[in-house]
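Lab meeting, action items carried over

1. Structure of the two-component assembly. Owner: GW. Status: complete.
Input record:
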Amino acid sequence: MKEEGVKQNCSSELRQDIITGDWVVIATGRAKRPEDFSKAERIKDNSEIESCIFENPEKTGQVEDVLIYETKEGEWTLRVFPNKYPAFTQNQNHCVSPEEGPYFAMPGIGFHEVIVTRDHYKSLAHLENLEVAEVLDAYQERYLDLMKNKKVNFIGIFHNYGKEAGASISHPHSQLMAIPVVSPYLELELYGAENYFRQNRHCVYCVMAEYEHNTKKRVVFENENFIAFCPFASRAAFEIWVMPKKHSPYFERITIEEKIKAAEVLQKSLNSIFKALNDPAYNFYIHTSPCDGKDYPHFHWHIEILPHTATWAGFELETGIEISTIQPEIAAEYLRKML
Amino acid sequence: MKEEGVKQNCSSELRQDIITGDWVVIATGRAKRPEDFSKAERIKDNSEIESCIFENPEKTGQVEDVLIYETKEGEWTLRVFPNKYPAFTQNQNHCVSPEEGPYFAMPGIGFHEVIVTRDHYKSLAHLENLEVAEVLDAYQERYLDLMKNKKVNFIGIFHNYGKEAGASISHPHSQLMAIPVVSPYLELELYGAENYFRQNRHCVYCVMAEYEHNTKKRVVFENENFIAFCPFASRAAFEIWVMPKKHSPYFERITIEEKIKAAEVLQKSLNSIFKALNDPAYNFYIHTSPCDGKDYPHFHWHIEILPHTATWAGFELETGIEISTIQPEIAAEYLRKML
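Predicted assembly:
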């Protein structure tokens, strides 16, 4: 058996994403200790609960809910409604000329919804297991409803936390966009997963999940059904992927039991980031197969969590090669200590 | 002749990048007037000239210059030296195990240099034409030198201006990374350009430059040799591309006359952004063919300028589909007024 592992004092290494073939740089010559990443003080939004439009949607003129979960006493615990400033909407067929000279455009027909949890001050990192499972439940319910629409071929589900991560309202919320085109990033992963399967007769995500489970060093937390780990080719410092251990291309087919297990791993992951980086801004999103009527047997749905630990500057924007300044092994070790 | 142009009151449209096939969203339902974009107050760095390590590299322990331009009187006007915290360096063959389980890595062998202009307070937007040409001259000279290295297959040249755009030092400077792998973004463009040529027998960039020159509406500025325009499928509000009008795959083959013409268009573009957005942070970078010994006859080098007008949040990070809130036609019209 060959010597495993990458030496920790290497000042710069290129790591390849085995799914997409893309590269990242781990440049530890600029290194900080894991605890130094928490110093990047986040701009906290101290907006008042009284003026929060998610707290009192009826007062602030919000349109009708498309989904609402309530307690037995009739108190809402989660609600979903259309985004007030949608990036995609219905009925705008007449707006766009499909062609202009050599170019091509189409109307941004789709759905853009907001998924809001009850507590103004409690992020997902601090909710109970069943409360996080309820959020996943809402994602699934809206997904299953919207995928029926013939013009919807892809549904993006994401969560922005903190201003630097693009959250313009501090009340915890996720968003969902159901759109006619498939995400280019997802297409790279779909292509990569199929290509890997052709060459190796295995799902590349299953291979990763199993390898990480066996070696443990990049694992943040795992239970029977899900594993959270810092990917070998992390795009950002302290990035975490949450992945089902069982091969599964379609998030929307998740079972109740799996939702509870996924919620535990997601909550622990977010909580470890919260503690390790002192309440950083972050984004997470679900990568799942398109809903365009085709089968994607070799894809494997997962959640990617990207803490806002660096600014992507000219090199990253130019090349798509992200530079991270901490090894994922060190980041994972530190995150595990937070649990 | 069909009706040209996209209606301006459309609240959301998907526009396709005809080079890569990627999509952007222009969501003007969230629209602001062009002048409103300038309100995003930039965090200005008021660092003192005395403590600037680029102002006095000899005092602050900077290593030796690899290139220096001087006046007849022996005063330096531009200098190039290795980055003190390099993302890529020489001689680290022993650091990285190339394999770990299913993964693959390689040493980050390469060069990472900084290109510094003389004036601490004057950005490229405010330099004279010949001073900007001198910067392009330095890019070219370093490119021609570094591309000789057998391990260098790609050279990224970029400029970060302002903290939000990743500039950690306020003294105006560009950077250059000469690395063993080709940028994934460039590969998408190379593939797209070749594919377009096979289908249409034309360079896709030449087609764009000619169409923009003829229709004028997205042009910011042009002269005999170069054109600056807001791309039809802009990734960011007020994005500008600067492109040679003559087909040319290799930046490093630019002539003296062309450098002066390119400098004029680049400077006017940056100056229009400076005025329109009230001194915003921005990145620009050069997309040119790899230097891996292969020919890229269908590529066409160009500069992309990305003002920091929005935060890429969960949806953009998840999908690679960027959302912009102003039509490039409106942005270009406003930028032209600044000249």
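2. GW to write a short summary for the group page. Key points so far: Chain B touches chain A through 88 residues (CB under 8 Å). The two ends of chain B are 32 Å apart (CA to CA).
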